[in-house]
Amino acid sequence: MTMTYKNILSAKEEVSAKSGINIGIVTLNRPTVLNALNHELMEELVTALEEFDRDDSVRAIVLTGSERAFAAGADIKEMSDETTVSIMLKDRFATWDRIKNIKKPIIAAISGYALGGGCELTMMCDIIIASESAQFGQPEINIGVIPGAGGTQRMTRVLGKYKAMELILTGRPLLAREAYELGLVNKVVPVELYLEEAKAMAKEIAGKSPIAVRLAKEAVLKSFDGPLNEGLQFERKNFYMLFSSEDQKEGMKAFLEKRKATFTGK
Fold first, then answer.
1. What would the pLDDT profile of 197-247 be if each residue is shown by its tens digit?
2. Is there a domain that residue 261 lies in?
3. Is 140 noted as a catalytic residue in this protein?
4. What is the DSSP letter of 53?
5. Using CA atoms, how far apart are residues 244 and 250, in angstroms rounded to an integer?
6. Is residue 196's pLDDT more than 60?
7. CATH number at residue 161
């Protein structure tokens, strides 16, 4: 049963009429504070993502906010009085860590501000579609702290040491076109198209074998976790595993028969 949330919206959209295959759409919904990421929102977000991850009819997930802001950052009011001990004991990043365990691909649809925690949440997604108004950045340095949900690590892996150092130490934002040129986003489109573009990407992926998509995502993410040889071995294992799936048999048979494959996720 689909839950009702206070800080987000959650919905399913069918890929095509009577296909039974859906994409999940999660929308951050705290408009009065530009979708600032408080603990309650993050708990709801992860619950919604995990619900879609368990739903066999959902093959890919779109994560978005509003046209004005994906998320302008963490909720500073919620954190301002914390101490080292209190914030450590609350272990709020444990909620964020659960996002890494989502097996289905997450496509971020970003418009407006994606700053601080909003930028870090964006970089946890697998594909990023940005509107021309999107701004990315880690401005934590301006309030006397640093990124804490992976910003220093993920941004550096994408942009390299020198660009990441510039952005994190100055706190300046990265506009959509520059983010695209630096490889931080997949595509930049007009504001009125960014969400539909992300949905189209999700629906395209939803038409592929869900088992192959899951293992491909695992293999790509593994490349960030260790040395090349270890990643190659992990990729090879997942490749071999797919030859036990019905989707592999159907996909190759359909290719040879010059028809479109029908994948069942088995």
1. 999 999 999 999 999 999 999 999 998 888 878 877 877 788 788 888 899
2. no
3. yes
4. H
5. 12
6. yes
7. 3.90.226.10
pTM over 0.70: yes
In the set 72, 74, 176, 206, the catalytic residue is 74
CB atoms within 10 A of CB 121: 28
Query: Residue 246 catalytic?
Result: no
Q: Are 64 and 113 in contact (CB under 8 A)?
A: no
Query: Same structural domain for residues 47 and 81?
Result: yes
Cα Rg of the chain, angstroms: 19
| Residue 101 in domain | yes
> 36, 140, 149, 164: which one is catalytic?
140
Token readout for 39 is 């603990």
Of the candidates 116, 117, 137, 251, the residue annotated as catalytic is 117
Phi, psi (deg, nearest 5) at residue 68: -80, -35
In a domain, 15, yes or no: yes
Chain-centre distance for alpha carbon 3: 21
Q: How would you classify the pairing of strands 174-175 and 135-137?
A: antiparallel
Give yes or no: 183 in active site: no
Q: Which of 152, 212, 158 is nearest to 185 (CA)?
A: 158
